[in-house]
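Whiteboard transcription, Tuesday session. T.W. wrote the structure tokens on the left side:
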């Protein structure tokens, strides 16, 4: 494992309020309308799950998403209307441990087909234990509010190989739940997995020969990606991606950047680049976007998962000095 840091938050995700106001679906209609469409009705928890459902289901599914584009998925609180839509659906596709309000709603829902992406691949802990600087850099901010169950890193979709494994599991679940269209689900799954395999090859080849193997990011979401391609992620400590790091942490990262040939501090699409610029500071580093692909908005560098991942690859190649 080549992930050196998983530092962003020691605070817990906001408590779930079943009666609180929530967001409407990321689709054109609300998730309350997820039942009775004449298709296989699937409720997806957030964009990476919706993408799988749409690609695998094709014309046979009607997909609604609980998390709106641009909304931080970890902080989602489901509305009563969304809970009603969930109960009327044929299937729910989610990632247990990422969104507590979704987990609670799914546990209480009568929906027959419950697909937990976390059970379809392997999850790991990405802590402060790995890499040369780890011991001397460990601090009280080691907790991460994006951790899934048992402290495991939930960001599996950013690793094309794990995401392909999830896709295969989703395909099998669709085939079982809607056997009349099993052949199409199988074909669509195979086509998606082929594209994810090609994406994996592009990352592997594109990052095989770089001047540096270390990158700094405000969001510790890229542990699986870093491990897959022999990189090391250095995450900035703080309560959230926009929080100010301590002066000591800034100095540590600036020293590390100089020692490891780091040129760029990454921030995510949907938040301010203020923290990244703080770290870049006097060290003369650049800032750029590395997108955790938790949602697609007008600011995204691409219209779907594959396009944004290729933009991420290009950003990493530029930052790491691809040869």
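and on the right, the sequence the group agreed on:
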């Amino acid at each position: 494992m080549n992930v050196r840091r998983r530092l962003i938050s020691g605070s817990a995700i906001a408590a779930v309020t079943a009666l609180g106001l929530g967001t409407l679906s990321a689709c054109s209609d609300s998730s309350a309308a997820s039942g009775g469409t004449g298709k296989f009705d699937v409720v997806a928890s957030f964009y990476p799950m919706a993408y799988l459902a749409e690609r695998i289901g094709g014309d046979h599914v009607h997909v609604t998403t609980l998390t709106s584009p641009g909304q931080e998925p970890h902080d989602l609180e489901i509305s009563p209307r969304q809970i009603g839509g969930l109960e009327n659906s044929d299937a729910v596709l989610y990632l247990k441990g990422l969104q507590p309000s979704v987990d609670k709603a799914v546990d209480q829902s009568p929906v027959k087909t419950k697909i937990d992406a976390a059970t379809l691949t392997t999850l790991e802990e990405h802590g402060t234990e790995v890499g040369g600087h780890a011991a001397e850099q460990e601090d009280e901010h080691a907790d991460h509010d994006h951790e899934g169950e048992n402290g495991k890193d939930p960001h599996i979709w950013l690793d094309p190989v794990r995401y392909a494994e999830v896709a295969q599991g989703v395909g099998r679940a669709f085939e079982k739940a809607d056997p009349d269209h099993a052949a199409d689900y199988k074909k669509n799954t195979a086509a998606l997995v082929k594209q994810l395999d090609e994406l994996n090859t592009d990352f592997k080849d594109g990052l095989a020969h770089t001047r540096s193997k270390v990158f700094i990011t405000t969001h510790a979401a890229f542990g699986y990606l870093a491990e897959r391609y022999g990189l090391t992620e250095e995450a900035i400590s703080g309560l959230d991606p926009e929080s100010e790091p301590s002066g000591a942490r800034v100095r540590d990262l600036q020293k590390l950047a100089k020692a490891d040939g780091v040129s760029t501090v990454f921030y995510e699409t949907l938040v301010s680049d203020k923290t990244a610029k703080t770290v870049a500071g006097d060290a003369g580093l650049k800032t750029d976007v590395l997108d955790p692909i938790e949602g697609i908005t007008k600011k995204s560098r691409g219209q779907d998962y594959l396009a944004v991942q290729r933009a991420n690859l290009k950003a990493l190649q530029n930052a790491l000095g691809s040869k």
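Someone added at the bottom: The mean pLDDT is 82.
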